Structure formats: C-alpha cells, structure tokens
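Problem: given the chain below (462 residues), write out its structure.
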Amino acid sequence: MRVFRSIGAVAATCALLLGCTSVYNIPVNVPLAGATLDPDYGIDFTDPAERDDLLIGFSFSGGGTRAAAFSFGVLDELSRMPVRGASDTMLERIDFLSGVSGGSVTAAYFGLKKRAALSDFRERFLLQNAEAPLNTQLSLGTIGRALGGGINDSKAFTAWLDANLFDNATFASLRHRGSLRVWLNASDIYNRVPFVFNETAFSAICSDLNKYPLSAAVAASAAVPLAFAPAVVQAFPGTCKEPLPRWVTRAASNPNTSPMLSSYAKAVLRYREGAVPFIKLLDGGLVDNYGVAPLTIVRESSETPYGPLAPQQAVRLRRGILMVVDSKTGLSGDWINTVEGPNGVELIKAAVDTTIDASVGSSYTAFERTMKDWQSALVRWRCGLSAADRARYGAGPGWRCNDLQLFVGRLGFDQLDPARAAMLEAIPTRFQLPQAQVDEVIAAGRDTLRASPVFRAFAQGM
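Solution.
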C-alpha cells in the first residue's frame, strides 16, 4: 500500500506542477492580407550572378555552437580558394545553403552578410553565451515547465539573436542578397516532416514569408524538446486564392512517389485545407539533421529533367558539388556500465540522439540517390536537345552534352585522425563553448574541407 501511496504522491506532485505551468509560444507569422504571393522568392537559379558552369551547395547539420563553428570553418576555407581564371573565390560561387539547428545560425547569417559574415561571426556569436537568457537546468524548479510544454519559450532566445546577430532582419532581407538561396529547417512534429521556411510552406498557409523574422526561424530550428516549447506557426486557410503548385496534389496522390516527398506533400495539403491550424515546430534534427530535405524535395517535385535549374543553366552546367557538413555528436554516457540507468534526463537525451542519428542515414541515402538520378536525367535531356534548342539555351562551340558531373559528399569529424575526431565529438552540443574549443572546431572545418577527396575531385575537374 505504501508503494501505491508513493506513486499517488508523485502523480499528485506532477499534476500540481502541470496545473501551475503552461509554456507555449504565440505565432509571429502574419497573413498575406491581400498581397499576392511572390513567385520570385525561393528556388531560383536563373539570377545573372549564377550564370557560370558550377553548382555549389552546402548543408550545415545541427549541433549547437559546435555545428555553427564547424560550418564557419568550411566557409572560411572556401574564401581562401580562388576560382581558376576569375577574381573571386569559391565562397562567392555558393548557390545554396541549408541549415539545421546550430547550422541554421551560420547559414542565416552568411545569407544576410555574405563574405562580410566571416569578419565578425566568431565574435558576435561563436564566442558569446547564447544560453545567457535561457534556463538550461532540469530540476524540481523547472520540471513543471518542461512537462507543461518546455522549460523556455522562444521570446528570450529570439530577442538575444536579434540583439547580437540578426538586428531584426526578416526573410525579405535574404531575398535582396543576390542569388544565394538559404533554407532554414525545423521539424513539424504533428505531420512528422521537415518544415522548410520557404515559399511552398508559407503559400500553403496563406502567410507572408517576407515578414517572418530570421531569429524566429533559427529558434524554431534549434528548439530542442523539453528545453524549448515548440515554436508555433499559424495557418490562415481560405484567405488566399493562389493555387498550390501542381506537384503537391500529384505527389500526395501518387502511390509511387518517394516516402519523403509524399509525406511532405500531404502535410502541405493539410496546411492549405486548414486541417492543421497551428503548426508546432521543434529542432530540425528530429526528422533531418543533415538539412538535405529541401533540395531533395525541390528536385523530386520538379516536372522537368533539369528542375530546379533553368534550362539555360542546365546546359551551361559542367560540375556541381553538394556537401553535408556533419557535426553530429559521438557516443556518450556511463550508464552502459551498470544494470541501472539511464536516468530520466539521460534517457531523454539518448532518445533524442537516437532519433537524430536514425534520421540522418535515411535522409542522406535518399539525397544521394536523388542527386545521382538527377545527373542521369540532365545528361539524357542535354543529349536529346535539337540543334535549335542547343543554340537557344546557349550551348557554345565544343559543348559536350555528357560533360557533366555532380559530386555528393560529407564532411565530418570522423574524417580526421582518430584522436582529434574523438576530442571534437566530445565537445557538448550547447550554445556556449570556451574559446579554445570554438577555435579547435573552426580549424577542423578548414582542415576537413581541404582534405576531402570529394571536394578535391570537384575542384580538379574544374
């Protein structure tokens, strides 16, 4: 009987804590309010600045400040690599960036400032304590908030990001930074799909992406379960008239559609139909810690062999590289050495880590397959062009239809020597790190890119 009384006491305590605390976020997105959707926003590789024969993209994984520093090191190394026969570097030739959690901070800031981001990102973010405005302890004092939605809401973190990094910039600011496309990714925990902050998702909910704060998107991308209450995006069904892209209905109804595209299309339909009035978002790593879903989706949803490229760029294209910058944590925990354990906090961490690691294998495999199929489709299309089409799309003298290669690769700590890799993997996935660890990870980003056989093959092929 005493056991049941103890259980009852625990249950009563939990009920009391939950009854006193409810943590949630208020949506900050706004309806279109009569504005027309902007067809120029989103995936568009036809910008004049993109009219070379290269396609370069990087996807920055999650992992707190460690991930932000590792991806920053990769960008810094690109800035040291001149393009043969040109006055700029590889950094200026990047076509797209995708970011998750800590990687989304680097992607968003570079999208805003381009090369200038390299001069102050270390001081403005990497060496700062982004946890300063947050409660980071799970204790008797915070467990009620954790069970009531999350220990922290988004307000303090977004305010810190704006004050220290983004200066209240919105997605409209990214549109006016040239041809670079930036995708920030969270997880829609109801539909269990990536939520990409792009025109497809926002047009489905009849909301204005241009007015959405970058800080809010980054906070949603980094909203670790229990540490943060889910970010909330509101749908405004019936307030806009523009139809969804044709591929959404086609992909949702076609049984042969890939699982990723099918699930995503069905979620988009639910948004437009009003079946999900409030979309709840947590850390993007829960469904795609590599951040490769955006390009996988836009390619698989394309109705042409060359999409999302324009036909002119598809004809010019000779070499492309699409690389994941992987900052995932190593194995950890002492509880494997005893019969008991893990305890509650360790169990939550282990469950999240397991979910994230499980997602990366399947998402990367799908991405790799999609890119391989895309290369084959591009070559077939190019080689089937008539003489008139080749002239119209800009194929010059000596052009070869099969002179095209897409490289897909990953940059990770495990590609360095074992001792260094173990040291880097042991660095915690927090938003506060000592300067020595920050600089170690930045150097690892530079070294890993420089030593990558995939990147070297791409560069030599140029």
